Prior knowledge:
Elements: H1 3-21, E1 35-37, E2 48-53, E3 59-64, E4 71-76, H2 87-96, H3 98-102, E5 106-110, H4 119-136, E6 142-148, H5 150-162, E7 172-176, H6 183-186, H7 188-201, H8 226-237, H9 248-261, H10 268-285, H11 305-311, H12 319-329, E8 339-344, H13 354-365, E9 371-376, H14 388-400, H15 408-422
Helix pairs in contact: 1-12, 4-5, 7-10, 8-10, 14-15
Amino acid sequence: MPARRLIALALAGALLLAGCATPHAPADRAEAPPQARACPAELPAGTRCLAGRDAAGAFYLVALPAQWNGTLVLHAHGGPTLGAPTLERTEEDLKRWAIVVRAGYAWAGSSFRQGGVAVHAAAEDTERLRRLFVAQVARPKMTILHGQSWGAGVAATAASLYGNAQPRPYDAVLLTSGVLAGGSRAYDFRLDLRVIYQALCGNHPRADEEAYPLWMGLPPGAKLTAGELHQRVDACLGLDRPAAQRTAPQQEKVDAIVRTLHIPASAIQGHMAWATFHFRDIAERMGGRSVFGNEGVRYQGSRDDDALNAAVARYARDPAAWSAFARDTDPDGHIPVPVLTVHGIGDPTAFVEMDDTFLHTMQAAGTADHLVQTFTDHATHSYLADPVYPALLVALSTWAQGGPKPSPGQVAQQCLAMEARFGPGCRFRPDFRPGPLATRVAPRD
């Protein structure tokens, strides 16, 4: 790697370390008022939509239903998205969460001011949007902070950073399909995927391409596109065709990955993309140092585990880089308001076992009495079902206003009551408890 590039990466890592050490609330800068915008067709008639770009450069959208119940749902989106922020990304979020507006809640979401795996910065952008809403749109009777997927970590971080301010900015927190184990633990299995895939397929990188440590995602200057990566993975595994149409060697490799990493074949392409392009973003933020390692990890489930473990590349993580990444991405559990979570048991993207890690995080912070965790019999990540979210919002609102702490069974009953209005889809499992993350992902030091 050229010396100039190494210096630039090291400087980026130093800046991130400094930023993580002393998080600050968003500066109170003058914000231009939002402008009226046509609402997406998915929203109910009479909804008022506003859009703008805040002082830090993040785009945002606001939707106010005609019969607003006075509660604002402040949304932190998943992903994260790479590249420059766009209003289109936020509009996609609003369309996906139209159920919130249909249920009578105001909705506000930010694109965040930058792409990439930067949790504290996204938490700042989320809080900035809340302040903008209060100053420029309306003063809500209640504010619920909602984080979806990676955004659940953003919301949990924002609730810790700003939740104790007076008056309290957030009355409650809703975390859905959350990446709640923190970046320091949630992405280890994607390094496992990279090394196992390379041992089996040998085409990412190819033999005629520059070699690089796989935790880096891609080497600096690489031009590989998402489409090209997809073609490489399909060439080796045949994922674009039914299992019956794959060759025997392709199916054997797919089976090895599925059994070893406990992910469905349909999720391999997505995780390979994240383990390529998001890993590159993380490596650049860490100054070219490794956050991920797999020394001593024993992979199990293939036809020949000894051969597989002998073939995979091994890497040691940089302790300082890992600590810096953890400080930015790991929730600390110091959330002073009610927290309600939901997770599909078969989520192929953010494993349900991450919720066990989050429970222990809240217990360590002494805030476990603020937490209720619920689970559904869904095998999806991005969205569960329409009646699920109004049920969660009602249960959380009642609790935040002084009502009794809801049980998972009561949330399940609330969901069934919502089906008459929002359609079927309630599949809560009040009896379910996830195991530790180490039962799903090969443990490491």
